[in-house]
Specification:
about 700 residues, binds adenosine-5'-triphosphate, P-loop_NTPase, transmembrane helix, ATP binding, ABC_transporter_sub-D
């Protein structure tokens, strides 16, 4: 951008010299605006990467269009190309756009928008680009995205240019109709309208294809970014622990990202669409405002022949200003309502999904009536809020449609007296009407897109608060097991092999202590059983040992490079085949077929061997005990160094439990087992017994109890 700024400043200097020579005020104005544009271009290192692309486009255009205009001003423009000389206002307009981009980048709402957009436009991810007719080539994702944006902006500007050309066509065409000039009528239609219309259609189709490609790539990238951010370092779990205000993360990832970029299926307006639309509107505003301004010269007052400078433009500005103010007054509650609507819809969908997941439990408890009541109550929130949206939109629609209706007649209303007085032709009147409507449509951007803007703002707020919740969860700190073993309780030689706790204190999310003063060393090949009252913090201790519990003090030390696996009471069954459930989280094909079959036999699940590749809702098909055995099979395949069983055999009968423990000891001789359980029969499978005991302070601590029997 610095180099570009220098080029712009050079151009501003040339402009100043040309201004001095020609004495033309407009050239001086162009030189001054370009100088300011050079300053903002230089400063644009500080602004968002997304906006920087636009600032760069407009700075480059300032130099190119400005140089062409200067050539014309100093008389170097070829005579033969006189018809194609650029309008003087064009370089001035693009220079102002560049300055405007810089200025808006500091508005808070624009900052939160670009903070999310910039992630994509700052990525260093490599990608493969396929651009017809070139062979595939490697590129950086952000460069490809920026190229697409540049191309789309240029295409859009070309479309505005064609639109303006067509407005002149209609002026000449209507004049030909009025003058009954048949020859010009047909010439205009076939040699002007049809070629330009064809180019316009080709531009629109190309724009659609490229814009869709950009949106798909952007969404895929941002989706992966958020999925990673949400899952890395157990952030999703920490967010649950914190109970942060970020409701329904699934919706934020699946819907809000898409809606942020492109508005999704519902409204069709997101950051990309709004930016392109705004640029198109601004370009057409400036172009038509100039036309409207020049047309105003025709509107001289009766009897006096004096024209009010820019009379039509001021009329359009006043009319649009009043409209925007009233629209905002009527619709300002829509953003909050749209935010709530998305939350209520997601809550309702989540309740329905939960019902499907817990169908059996609900049916057994005859809970259908209670569920109906909950569902109806949640749905009534959806509808209640929707009614409020309808009420607001009713007022807004009544106003905007009346406004739209009246807008069509305002220019005729203003031009008619002049037309009937013979001061303007029919062609001028029709061009005035179309220019007035184009200026008005650009000025009434906020009126026309108010509902979509309100929805977009609510999507932006949801993504921003999701980001804030992720950041808060990540900022919880890392109370993590350490890879060294500094405890004084053990000799140096044993440091690398033991798992130890030193002055360990665990809290609940509200800060209250649950486990205190825990000092213990788990030794390899010494199966330990941890017992204690319900709610005493046994599972919480295992969570801390596996590194997912963030609230604690003291030291947890784990041997280097050792695999620790934890089996909870209710195992997780992923969606998919039975094989993927057994091998989870490893790849389903990570183990030999015979090994998987043998493991199923070892846990007495041989009847499932034939169903290994069947996809089903296994969490609902298998009994509690079968699911627990399946989890044991997982451990047998994974062969961890440390296996923590948190009531992982509680749904089995005692005989089956004994068989499972024997199998574990036989098949995993190198694994140290630490179990949590309430059954006394478990003591027989462990050489150590540790108990969680209440303290006077109301928390719990670990107490070593002598082992009644050696492991079998
Ligand atoms: N995310 C959480 N937020 C608030 N409190 C929690 C959270 N997780 C656990 N607790 C509380 O911490 C205490 C200890 O829970 P934990 O699951 O560790 O007990 P436990 O000893 O394993 O019990 P049980 O033998 O019944 O399984 C309980 O009172 C529980 O309500």
């Amino acid at each position: 951008m610095q180099l570009l700024a220098l080029i712009v400043v050079l151009f501003a200097g040339v402009g100043a010299v040309a201004g001095f020579h020609t004495g033309d005020l407009l050239v001086w104005l162009l030189a001054a605006t370009s100088a300011l544009c050079a300053v903002t271009t230089w400063q644009s290192r500080q602004i968002s990467s997304f906006l920087k692309i636009f600032a760069a486009i407009f700075a480059v255009e300032t130099v190119i269009f400005g140089s062409l205009c200067l050539l014309d001003k100093v008389g170097l423009w070829p005579e033969s190309l006189a018809d194609y000389a650029l309008p003087e206002s064009l370089p001035l307009t693009v220079a102002m756009f560049a300055i405007l981009v810089y200025a808006v980048s500091f508005i808070p709402v624009v900052r939160s928008m670009t903070k999310i957009a910039d992630r994509y436009f700052e990525t260093s991810d490599p990608t493969i680009a396929r651009v017809w007719p070139f062979p595939a080539f490697g590129a950086m994702e952000r460069r490809l995205a920026a190229t697409m944006i540049v191309f789309l902006v240029l295409l859009n500007q070309a479309e505005v240019g064609i639109d303006i050309r067509l407005s002149f066509f209609s002026r000449d065409w209507f004049n030909a109709i009025q003058a009954k000039d048949e020859h010009t009528f047909w010439i205009q239609l076939f040699y002007v309208f049809i070629p330009w219309a064809f180019i316009y259609i080709a531009a629109v189709v190309t724009e659609y294809v490229i814009a869709s490609t950009l949106v798909i790539r952007w969404r895929s990238w941002l989706n992966n970014f958020y999925v990673d951010r949400w899952l890395d370092n157990h952030t999703h779990y920490r967010m649950q622990l914190l109970g942060t205000t970020s409701d329904n993360p699934d919706q934020r990832i699946s819907e809000d990202i898409y809606r942020f970029i492109d508005g999704g299926q519902a409204s069709g307006y997101g950051i990309y669409t709004f930016t392109i639309l705004l640029i198109a509107k601004l370009s057409s505003l400036v172009s038509y405002a100039i036309i409207l301004w020049s047309l105003s010269a025709n509107f001289t007052l009766p009897y006096y022949d004096i024209a009010v400078p820019g009379f039509l433009f001021w009329a359009a500005l006043f009319y649009a200003g009043v409209g925007t103010f009233v629209t905002h007054l009527l619709g300002r509650s829509l953003t909050t309502l749209a935010f709530k609507q998305q939350r209520f819809e997601a809550d309702y969908r989540f309740s329905l999904a939960r019902l499907r997941e817990y169908g059996e439990q609900i049916a057994l408890l005859l809970g259908e009536e209670a569920e109906k009541a909950t569902l109806k109550q949640r749905f009534s929130s959806v509808i209640g809020n929707y009614y409020q949206i309808v009420t607001t939109r009713k007022k807004l629609t009544a106003f905007t449609s009346s406004y739209g209706m009246v807008s069509q007649f305002i220019p005729y209303f203003l031009a008619a007296p002049f037309y009937f007085a013979g001061k303007i032709t029919f062609g001028v009147m029709s061009q005035t009407a179309s220019a007035f409507m184009s200026v008005n449509s650009a000025l009434t951007f906020f009126i026309n897109y108010y509902v979509s803007l309100a929805e977009f703002k609510s999507v932006l707020d949801r993504l921003t608060s999701f980001d804030a919740a992720i950041e808060k969860a990540q900022g919880l700190g890392t109370f993590r097991p350490r890879g060294s073993f500094p405890t004084e309780a053990l000799p140096e030689a044993e440091i690398m092999t033991h798992l130890g706790l030193e002055n360990l204190k665990l809290h609940l999310p509200d800060g209250s202590a649950i486990v205190e003063n825990a000092n213990l060393a788990f030794r390899p090949s010494e199966a330990a059983l941890l017992t204690g009252p319900s709610g005493s913090g046994k599972s919480t201790l295992l969570r801390a040992l596996s590194g997912i519990w963030p609230f604690g003090e003291g030291t947890i030390a784990r041997p280097h490079h050792q695999h620790l696996m934890l089996l909870p009471q209710k195992p997780y069954m992923p969606i998919g085949t039975l094989r993927s459930a057994i091998t989870y989280p490893a790849d389903p094909l990570a183990f030999e077929e015979e090994t998987v079959r043998e493991t199923l036999r070892a846990v007495k699940l041989e009847r499932l061997i034939d169903k290994l590749d069947v996809e089903d809702l296994w969490a609902q098909r298998l009994s509690g005990g079968e699911q627990q055995r399946l989890a044991i099979a997982r451990a047998l395949l994974a062969k961890p160094d440390w296996l923590f069983l948190d009531e992982a055999t509680s749904a089995m009968d005692e005989t089956l439990e004994a068989t499972v423990y024997k199998t574990l000891v036989e098949k995993l001789p190198a694994t140290t087992i630490v179990s949590i359980g309430h059954r006394s029969s478990l003591i027989h499978f462990h050489s150590r017994h540790i108990e969680m005991r209440g303290t006077q302070e109301g928390s719990f601590t670990l107490v070593e109890i002598s082992a009644p029997k050696a492991a079998e």
